[in-house]
TrEMBL record:
Residues 3-95 form the DUF1330 domain. It holds the Pfam family DUF1330. This is DUF1330 domain-containing protein. It comes from the Bacteria.
Length: 97
């Protein structure tokens, strides 16, 4: 089964409020088997444009990645994030080569 990934680039305007989103997303991420591969951290911008924070989350399948995003639990967490951040995100199927 091909894994699924969330790849997000985010600018956070209010880190204290954003922390409530982080706490709220823990339950849906656990439910759908999410594992953080990248969660912020140091980076070097080598090409193009990017936001301040990059996040990569691995799921056991592409279907699980989509289901997590669409779940009521994640949508409730997302409602906490939306007013205090701006981001771009894709949900993408992994490569089994």
């Amino acid at each position: 089964m091909t894994k699924g990934y969330w790849v997000a680039h985010v600018d956070v305007d209010d880190i204290e409020t954003y922390k409530t989103y982080i706490a709220a997303n823990a339950a849906p991420f656990a439910e759908y088997g999410a594992r953080f591969l990248v969660r912020g951290g140091a980076y070097e911008q080598t090409e193009g444009h990017c936001r301040a924070r990059t996040v990569v989350i691995e799921f056991p399948s592409y279907e699980a990645a989509l289901a997590c995003y669409r779940s009521p639990g994640y949508q409730a967490a997302k409602a906490l994030r939306d007013p205090v951040s701006t981001g771009d995100m894709v949900i993408i199927q992994g490569y089994d080569g």
